[in-house]
Design a protein that fits this description.
The structure holds 2 protein chains of 2 kinds. Chain A is an alpha+beta fold. Chain A has 15 helices and 11 strands. The longest helix of chain A is centred in the last third of the chain and has 18 residues, at 347-364. Classes of the chains: A alpha+beta, B alpha+beta. Chain A: It comes from Iocasia fonsfrigidae.
């Protein structure tokens, strides 16, 4: 099968890594610049602020508006910024997706123009005082706005409590308090440190020629950089002494129950594939135990599922429930976790989980951003793999492997977002 | 089979009307791992009043189309999710105001999944017991949306814009209305609307064209579906004026969320004109307050909007509105500024701005074929308006700046404006 072949790796002149995936099935080409920083209390807020300040204007495109007009001229090219957390790494991702020139009426060299725009954004920012001040305020508001989405808020609170004494407990966008006091000087210092020393990767996915891409990026991204440090290693914890129980109260109509577990297993570990199969049986799909038992059999919830963080080694179960079924829902959920430990799952449940996972991986290979994301997660965990390799590894998972995983997983924190007293 | 070719995106679409009236569209896509199928019915949340040939007009409980969508997944021999699980496919469904759609994506065993899809949608199995059980699940879905401020601010906007139209109601209905749903009412709706001539099947991805069509033809030839003929949808008379100027709601949010809507009263009957107008006013609103405009940039600089601000225009048979929305520190001041500055923004539009937006729309159209889910949902949306999505560019090319500007005066009037605000 060549539909899921791998990335080609190149070193750029400035020592950054470039990963190219060739495919002519997409209508667009994707360029990503990924900055990987160690997650740390001292730097998390300033790092998160940078992309938003970049987007306010560069020395050539002096306002956001000018960036947007330029993007429209490049046939609706999309330039997005995102700040993510993967394990104890903070990621700043700059993504540019452009239509492939072959579909356009005039043969504008879009790819190269796109590279220049990306360069302007990240390497030629204006960093004006007024931009910095306004984006500090915007980012603080963005952090505050986490409470608007009750589900995401509950998930974040669970992580925060669970990893209160670990770096992972930091929010990916940083802290309001820190942002308040950041000065232009400090931000510039942070910027220079990132551009000079951080791990910087480039991804290109699309209908491209490797040599052209390599030479274009080398020409356009001509900046001084010395990639001295490697990707930060995340602290893994697999033992739990006491289960924490946390309750917050808010004006809500539905309770959000989040349970955090320690797996201690990362994307780079041998146990990674058994773990994702385990999660498939437990709660990743509509045929999984959680959906079937919490929703279909007991009618307690609209959603009940489980998900993994595979750089820090965590598993989270989430469900939206009525306040008065808290105990019952909790019991049913924990019972599902116990069942797998005891080996109480059928051949069918195992096969279905494996097939659904393989479907999911093959789907990733059909998405331009999915391909880059999958490979990036592998790189962060020091085990980059092709999707074909992932498919084979899923096939090889056995029943005993799943039971062994189930025995290792420890409940750490139970979080419940409850209604305020006196509410209906 | 009818072959339609689109030279811009370099794809072909095949069309066949089956003996039972079902419209089948097939779009083979090479080099992908995936197949995607969507089976959609021209029946949605708005269709709650029916005119029956023998019984006359009948009002059904709000949320019944969505309830039906949930219940079709249950068959006499079990849960349809299980059948998809056994092929590794991932199934889902959605109900919006006008349409109900069932879909799956697969990477193996496409034929089996396709037959599963056709069979579960076309074999309803409603019992008193399984209808009762679903009420708990849907109640939690309704409560989940009640905690979602973005959905609440939108729902309230629709209530302000409309006096009698069913758009005023939640797609899923209310806890009271779903309690009135029983198996007889579900069968009545099913048999009235889930008739092959009222449905469309759209497939795309990696499959054999002729084999797939034969499979569908054989499957459909055995089926007699939808016994109730001649059922008409009835809509209450909706006058041109708005219902309520300002609606406020209190929720736990970090800062106010606002939606500003303008009620459309000029609604063409003809599908081509309808779609052309919808595209044109979307261009207009982008030229007035999109991210490439001076107006947006100044509102942003003043801190009145953030980068989640969005604007769009919806036009369906029987209703339409323009919407601007986001978060704001001061929604009252923002409203005053928009009303005051829109005319000025209109006067500043140049032919160059228009050409730039054209390029953006062309690029976005090309890009929409990257994602199967996006292509499929756009296709379904347009086909029920009588337009083939592959012909959309012809309509875009038929639009001129004067035509776009021509919609301004009747739509963007203060007496047609409604504000919805959610605040703490």
């Amino acid at each position: 099968m060549n539909k899921t072949n791998a990335f080609n790796h190149y070193k750029l002149n400035n020592s950054c890594d470039l990963h190219i995936f060739n495919s002519n099935k997409f209508k667009t080409n994707l360029i990503q610049m990924v900055i990987i920083e160690k997650l740390a209390a001292e730097t998390v807020s300033a790092n998160a602020l940078l992309p938003y300040v970049f987007y306010r204007g560069s020395n050539k495109y002096s306002t956001t508006r000018e960036f947007k007009i330029r993007l429209n001229e490049l046939y609706g090219a999309e330039l997005s910024i995102s700040v993510l957390k993967r394990g104890e790494n903070q990621l700043l991702i700059f993504s540019l997706e452009l239509p492939n020139e072959i579909f356009l009426p005039d043969q504008t060299p879009l790819f190269r123009e796109g590279l220049k725009l990306l360069y302007e954004l990240v390497l030629n920012p204006a960093m004006k005082e007024e931009y910095i001040e306004q984006e500090k305020d915007n980012l603080q508001r963005k952090i505050g706005a986490l409470i608007n989405d009750k589900y995401s808020y509950a998930v974040e609170r669970c992580y925060q409590e669970m990893c209160a004494n670990e770096t992972y407990g930091l929010y990916k966008l940083g802290k309001k308090k820190d942002l308040e006091v950041i000065t232009k000087e400090q931000l510039l210092k942070r910027y220079n440190s990132i551009i000079n020393n951080s791990v910087i990767l480039f991804f290109v996915v699309g209908d491209v020629e490797d040599n052209r891409v390599l030479s274009d990026i080398n020409t356009v991204f001509d900046f001084k950089h010395k990639q001295s440090k490697g990707i930060n290693k995340t602290e893994l914890i697999s033992q739990v002494s006491d289960v924490k129980e946390i309750k917050d109260k808010m004006k809500v109509k539905q309770g959000k129950l989040i349970m955090g577990f320690r797996t201690g297993i990362t994307r780079g570990s041998k146990s990674y594939y058994p773990l994702i199969v385990y999660n498939g049986i437990l709660g990743a799909f509509p045929h999984s135990k959680l959906f079937q038992n919490v929703r279909e059999r007991s009618s307690l919830a609209y959603f009940a599922n489980s998900g993994l963080e595979t750089t820090k080694g965590l598993l989270l179960i989430s469900s939206g429930i009525d306040f008065n079924v808290y105990q019952k829902a909790r019991e049913i959920i924990l019972q599902q976790v116990e069942e797998i430990k005891k080996g109480n799952f059928t051949v069918q449940e195992l096969d279905w989980a494996k097939m659904s996972l393989q479907n999911r991986f093959k789907n990733i290979a059909d998405r331009i951003d999915g391909l880059a994301g999958h490979y990036l997660l592998g790189l962060i965990n020091n085990n980059p793999e092709s999707i074909d390799k992932s498919l084979d590894s899923i096939s090889a998972v056995k029943r005993e492997d799943v039971i062994n995983i189930a025995k290792q997983i420890k409940l750490d924190t139970i979080y419940f977002l409850d209604r305020q007293e006196g509410e209906r | 089979m009818n072959k339609l070719e689109n030279k811009i995106i370099n794809e072909c679409l095949y069309h066949e009307v089956l003996d039972n009236g079902l419209n089948v569209y097939l779009m083979p896509r090479k080099n992908f791992n995936k197949q995607y199928a969507i089976f959609a019915c021209d029946y949605g949340a708005n269709d709650t009043t029916l005119l029956l040939e023998d019984k006359g007009e009948m009002k059904l409980p709000d949320g019944i189309a969505h309830f039906l969508e949930h219940k079709l997944f249950e068959n006499e021999d079990g849960d349809s999710f299980a059948k998809f699980a056994s092929t590794g496919a991932s199934a889902n469904a959605y109900t919006n105001y006008t349409t109900t759609a069932y879909l799956f994506s697969s990477t193996d065993n496409f034929a089996t999944s396709l037959l599963n899809l056709l069979d579960f949608v076309q074999k309803p199995y409603f019992t008193d017991e399984n209808v009762e059980k679903e009420k708990g699940i849907i109640a939690q879905e309704i409560l989940m949306y009640e905690d979602d401020p973005e959905y609440q601010v939108y729902l309230n906007l629709l209530q302000g814009l409309y006096n009698n139209h069913p758009l005023r109601k939640n797609i899923a209905g209310s806890i009271e209305s779903i309690n009135k749903i029983d198996k007889d009412r579900l069968y009545l709706c099913y048999n009235s609307f889930y008739r092959p001539e009222n449905m469309v099947l759209f497939l795309l991805g990696d499959f054999d064209l002729n084999k797939t069509l034969k499979l569908i033809v054989d499957n459909q030839s055995k089926k007699i579906i939808g016994e109730i003929k001649g059922v008409k949808k009835v809509f209450p008379v909706e006058n041109d004026s708005i219902n309520q100027k300002l609606i406020k709601k209190e929720m736990d949010v970090s800062e106010p969320l606002f939606n500003l809507g303008f009620k459309e009263v000029k609604i063409p009957d003809n599908g081509y004109e309808l779609v052309k107008q919808e595209l044109a006013v979307n261009i207009l609103i982008d030229l007035l307050i999109g991210k490439g405009t001076k107006l947006y940039q100044s509102l942003y600089n003043e801190g009145l909007v953030d980068n989640h601000f969005h604007q769009y225009y919806i036009l369906e048979k029987g209703y339409g509105y323009a919407l601007m929305g986001g978060k704001s520190k001061d929604p009252d001041k923002l409203y005053q500024r928009i009303i005051k500055d829109l005319p000025d923004s209109l006067n500043k539009i140049t032919i160059k701005d228009y050409q730039t937006i054209y390029k953006k729309n062309l690029g976005n159209y090309i890009k929409s074929f990257n994602s199967f889910a996006r292509t499929a949902s756009e296709f379904i949306n347009y086909i029920f308006k009588g337009i083939n999505y592959l012909d959309l560019l012809d309509i875009i090319n038929d639009i001129e700046l004067d035509y776009v500007i021509g919609f301004y005066d009747s739509l963007f009037r203060e007496e047609k404006a409604v504000r919805s605000i959610v605040e703490h």
